[in-house]
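Usage

Read records sequentially. Each one opens with the input sequence:
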Amino acid sequence: MKGTSIALVFLLTASSALAQGGAQPRGMPDWGVGIEGQRKADLGNGFYRNPIMAGDHPDPSILKDGGDYYMTFSSFDAYPGLVIWHSRDLVNWQPVGPALFKNVGSVWAPDLVRHRGRYYIYFPGIGPYRSNYVVWADDIRGPWSEPIDLKIGRIDPGHAVGPDGRRYLFLSAGYRVPLADDGLSVAGPETKIYDGWKYPEDWIVEGFAQEGPKIAKHGDYYYMVLAEGGTAGPPTGHMIVAARSKSIDGPWDNAPNNPIVRTRSPAEYWWSKGHGTLVEGPGGGWFIVYHAYENGFYNLGRQTLLEPIEWTNDGWFRVTAPDASRPIPKPAVGTKSSGPAGTAPHGMPLSDDFSTNRMGIQWSFYKGTVTDKERYRYEKNSLVIKARGTSPSDSSPLWFVTGDHAYEIEVEIERDPGATAGLLLFYNQRLYAGLGYSAGNFIMHSYGLDRLQAKPRDVDRILHIRLRNDRHIVTIHYSVDGEHWIKYDRGMEVSGYHHNVGYDFLSLRPALYAAGTGEVRFRKFTYRALVGL
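and closes with the structure output:
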């Protein structure tokens, strides 16, 4: 469907949603309601509302593979990492599984590609030793190889193939490096090939930060889509720009309509829009996927958005939806692919009875390592974790991503005498909130501080904890039997638990922790989105 048609349909069906001030028309749902009340993009009426991936799914890299689409994201400090998701309609996504198990540092913007029947993910690992790596598999579902060190710096590799079949990685700051034919090593030095697009000096941005180059071939041109302006900071900073060349070697001409996507005012719903990738939809139309922060919900991290584009008569492209925050027609189905046949419900349950192993699909360890497989086991509908460290800050908590504005979580915990355990909202080792308990104390975790308090006499080794996050307002209840609940006399406000305060490019996530000595058993974890509050 051409962009003008998309815009016309949009205006005819939802014109009142575009009124100044952005109020939703009466009776129109905010988002679709999915599993456990989780919000989802599909509105069930032929439209979707961004984000297509709620919660922290930054730097999306998308692959069209016949009638299937696969997407992965920066996993940063979560291990297992590089979780791959699958879709047939670009709107509803289901997890496939992780591709990375060995800790090589914080994993930044990856690129998922298929070349000559084999799948590759190129990505930076940011740590004391900083480099770029590749993992590969002959089946998208794995097994995936161990990470191979390409021994090159910079960040955000974007894979491209020239007309002669030679392979390249485009990198941050306008550099490019050739790859060997198998894609598993570098075949030459880095060279500067592009200087970026210079935005007006009076724009409020975080910094130039030319990064995230993704290459798409369309017609006679290679198109480079990249980010500038910084990742977070001012909401008007991050942006998507484009350049093109008839040769993979350049020169690269900047798009006359740059920036392609940008937050122009802090009054907009989506902030810091950047890291775009072009993809052909199931009906032949084209789209751009990118990430952005949600106004008022920085602590959910960067979420993945989808917008339709149209190719203009001069061979450039532009987005066509009047507003990325409003309902948009779902991608059309045509004859160019098998379309969304067999599309499954979006997402997955986040409640877990621990009867099956969901490591890497849902759960991951903060700054985990391959040794974590020896740290946990499943036993009689319990997740048993060996204690580590002394507090949430050094115990490598187990966490997962959520994209809901309000939710409630609950778990039953049984700890060994020397263990300390609890239920958290965890951002990083400096910022977390929740309740823990040990042999002698309750521990109030707030703002990254661990405050010891007297433990009620009837609390021993088993404790049920319930935590509610209602649009940043956190309340806690506890119970010794799971039936009679007592409100904990401390509430918190957690809207500031995000990158602009605590760095690390993460999100605030539900988490379990086990510190001290011995083991901790977690049972009956439940998640419930609080819809309509």
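Summary fields computed downstream for this record:
- Confidence is low (pLDDT under 50) at residues 1-29, 335-341.
- Residues 3-14 form the longest helix (12 residues).
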